[in-house]
Amino acid sequence: MEDIKISIIMPAYNAENEILSSVESVLKQTYSNYELIIVDDFSNDNTYDLVKKIESENKKVRVIRHDINKKAGGARNTGIREASGEYILFLDSDDLLHDDDVLLKIIEVLGNDKPDIVYLGFESVGETIQGLFIPNESNSKKDNRILEWNYANVWDVLWKKDFINDNNMEFVEGKYFEDFVFYYTGVFKSNSYKYAEFPAIIYNSGRKESMTTKITPSKIEDLYYNMMCFASIIDEVDEKYKSMIIDILKDHNRYANELLNKML
Q: pTM of the prediction?
C-alpha cells in the first residue's frame, strides 16, 4: 500500500517553542510515502527559520510562508492547494502523531476502499481535556457524528483530497472557530467512511480557561460569521439532515451566548 501518499498539513504561527516536537513526530514515521507541508502564517518569532532549516535537511518537508496572517483556516487552504497526496491529514504545530507507526496503521485501515474520510482516534493531554477518544462502529455513523460526537475537529479525520476538491470545501480564512464549518460540511457530504480504533493524534488541549481569558468581541463576531457560512450549506444536503444543521446552529448560538456572558 506504499502507493498511497499522505499529505500532512501543519499551520504554524509563532510556534517556535513546540513545532520541533510536532515535526519530529512526523519524520519518525515508519511509513515513508508522505509529505509534510508547513505553512508559516506570517510568524514574527523564529518559527520560519526553524522550519526552513528542517526543510533544507529533509526532502519530505516543504515550507510555505504567508506574507500576511490568514489564521489556521487560511494556512490549511494553502496546504490543500499545494498537497500532492491522495489523502490529507491536518496536524497542528503543538500536536503530535501518537507513535512512529501511525501512518502505517492508517494506511492499513484504508485498505483498497479509498473512503472519503477516515475518523481517527486521539489522546487529549493538557489541563482542559484529558483522555482517549476512539471511534468505533457506533459513533462513526453519520447521525452519531453529527448529533453525539462532541469534537468537531478537522485534525482527527483523514480526508481524501478529491473529496475535498469535488465538494469545493475550503476553510473560512482570517477567522477563529473555522474548524466546525469544514468538519460538518465534510461529514454531511461524505458518502463513504472508515474508522481507526486507535489513537493517531496527541492533542494538546491547553490550559484551563485559556480561551475564556482571551474572549474579545471580534472572536464572537468570528463565531457568528462561521455560523452563517455553515447555514449556507442547508440547501446542499439531503432533506433528512436539514433539521440537524439547525440543531448545530442552535448549539453554537448557545455557546456564543456563554462567551458573551463571560465578557461581563
A: 0.94
